[in-house]
Amino acid sequence: MNIAPLVQARGLGRQFRDGASEKWALQGLELQILGGEKLAVTGPSGAGKSTLLRLLGALDRSYAGELRVNGCELRDLDDRALARFRGQTVGFVFQSFNLLPSYSVGDNLLMPNVLTGALPAADALERARELLDRVGLRACWDQRPLTLSGGQRQRVAVARALLLKPSLVLCDEPTGALDHDTAQQVLDLLDELHAEQACTLIYVTHDERVVARCDRRLQLFDGRMAERQPGGSS
Ligand SMILES: Nc1ncnc2c1ncn2[C@@H]1O[C@H](COP(=O)(O)OP(=O)(O)O)[C@@H](O)[C@H]1O
Ligand SMILES: [Mg+2]
Which residue's CA is minimally distant from atom 20 of ligand 1? Predict the structure, then answer.
């Protein structure tokens, strides 16, 4: 593991308007995550888990407090840095896979590079082919996502999330739509890739089997941390 924290949040909060009043979806969050860690974020529905994940991935930057990833305060990123951050520093895996149905599996895999231009096209193609092979779907390059099973689609989504070697992989209930055995296979794959790619993995999950695979758990309740975490400051 690296020594410098990959993620540093101090007094992190997110407020939403709820009719005439304001509601804190997240409040006073203190969090440090080290490079290479595997963290589970748990808590009841509405606790603020997805809100936190969206902030960590800079999909939402309207927060209170401090949120630094790789030493950069996310609200200060300019458009160019923001595009690079979303495309290259983070990878997302969603419960519902979020593959583009009218594109082939291969084109879905290449999409992060099409959007960012981070790699020369030939290098991206080579990396995408390697990753598809790695997730056991080499033969599916030209297929449309809807011709694949749920587990296969999530494997494609995992490969896509890793295309540009992100340091932070954010998974929002990645096994929520999968049966037990398929979920197990996807989790095994994520574990293996976490070790191979030296990324930090954050799971939002209700599944205790996922929590058991993680180094630690951050429990949210009504927008607050349920207990102080070993890595949290002050
Ligand atoms: N875009 C939004 N507008 C208004 N309220 C929101 C928005 N996103 C989330 N919330 C509210 O913030 C709280 C936390 O939501 P969320 O992070 O999705 O919870 P979880 O993922 O833990 O189920 C909920 O009360 C939800 O209604
Ligand atoms: Mg959620």
Answer: 46
* Sign, Cα dihedral of 115, 117, 122, 123: negative
Q: What is the largest CA-CA distance in the chain?
A: 54
> Containing H/E element for 90?
strand 90-94
Burial 132-144 (b: 16+ CB within 10 A, else e): bebbebeebeeeb
Task: For the domain covering 37-50+79-225, report its CATH number.
Answer: 3.40.50.300
Q: How far apart are CA 152 and CA 154, in angstroms?
A: 5
Encode pLDDT of 63-107 as tens digits: 999 999 999 999 999 998 998 899 889 999 999 999 999 999 999
* CB 132, CB 105: distance < 8 Å: yes
Q: Please state, as a whole number, how many other Cβ atoms lie within 10 Å of the Cβ of residue 197.
A: 16
- Sequence spans of domains, the chain: 37-50+79-225
CB–CB of 15/23 below 8 Å? yes
Mutational pocket test of ligand 1: of 14, 24, 50, 51, the residue with most ligand atoms within 8 Å of the beta carbon = 51
Over range 13-42, report the average pLDDT: 95
Query: Tell me, what DSSP letter sits at residue 89?
Result: I
pTM value?
Answer: 0.91
Is residue 49 within 6 Å of ligand 1 at its C-beta? yes
Q: Is-contact 32 8, C-beta < 8 A?
A: yes
The counts of H helices and E strands in the chain are: 7, 10
Cα separation, 154 vs 182, in Å, equals 10
Residue 133 alpha carbon to ligand 2 centre in Å: 31
